[in-house]
Specification:
Blueprint: H1 9-14, H2 25-34, E1 40-44, H3 69-78, E2 81-88, H4 99-115, E3 120-126, H5 141-150, E4 158-161, H6 164-172, E5 177-181, E6 193-195
Parallel strand pairs: 1-2, 1-4, 2-3, 4-5, 5-6
Bound molecules: magnesium ion.
Residues 45, 47-49, 53, 162-163 line the site of magnesium ion.
């Protein structure tokens, strides 16, 4: 491919503000060329990140998408991130709903993303209620399975969650950025970034430049 330069990465960052999200095609094309050899993921927790967190959501009638989630995912997709959902659903183990309920709900969720021009690469669900289960967050099992299956560079990947157990799963899987979505900006967290709205995430989607990149 030869050397490819972005003249002013800082200026590119500036261009990625919320107001500019629909008008950054030329910058996005440059980013994708620079990092075309990498696969990276935007890992999303489900309840409280994709949909409003109500207790034991398992029917589409109760599945309410949070404002901004489609904008964030479209922008991430344009940056070359695969969108992967990572969710604990212990309601199955607790007998509140069934595995079939979860599967049907996720078919609906993926379909709604598709209607908004977003491809969900994969959905990982831990149905166990056992905190020692390798897949149950904060354990990193689901992320590591995704890494293996999809050939992901975790250092270039981002995890977004609304609980500390999500953040710890991201850290345990060596995600490059962990973002806590919270109402309490003063909360103590291990996350590398705190945001109070989904759209704030847009500014953190710029990939880390690959080793050897010369400005
Ligand atoms: Mg959550």
């Amino acid at each position: 491919m030869g050397e490819f330069r972005i003249r002013n990465p800082v200026r590119v960052c500036d261009k990625l503000g919320m107001a500019e999200v629909g008008n950054m095609g030329i910058y996005l094309r440059e980013e994708i060329m620079v990092n075309a050899h990498l696969e990276r993921a935007l890992f999303l927790d489900r309840d409280g990140v994709i949909n409003v967190d109500k207790i034991d959501v398992h029917r589409k009638e109760a599945f309410e998408f949070i404002d901004g989630i489609f904008d964030v995912c479209r922008a991430a997709q344009q940056h070359g991130y695969k969108i992967i959902v990572i969710t604990n659903q212990s309601g199955v183990a607790r007998g509140v709903y069934t595995e079939a309920d979860v599967r049907m709900l996720h078919e609906y969720m993926v379909g709604e993303f598709a209607k908004n021009a977003i491809e969900i690469t994969d959905v990982y669900v831990c149905m166990s209620h056992d905190n020692s289960h390798e897949d149950r967050k904060p354990n990193p099992g689901m992320l590591l399975k995704a890494q293996e299956k999809h050939g992901l560079d975790m250092a270039s990947s981002i995890l977004v969650g609304d609980h500390e157990r999500d953040i710890l799963a991201g850290i345990n899987a060596h995600c490059g950025k962990t973002i806590l979505l919270t109402d309490d900006i003063d909360v103590t967290t291990s996350a590398s970034i705190k945001v109070t709205s989904l759209l704030e995430i847009l500014q953190y989607l710029l990939p880390v430049f690959p080793a050897g990149f010369v400005e």
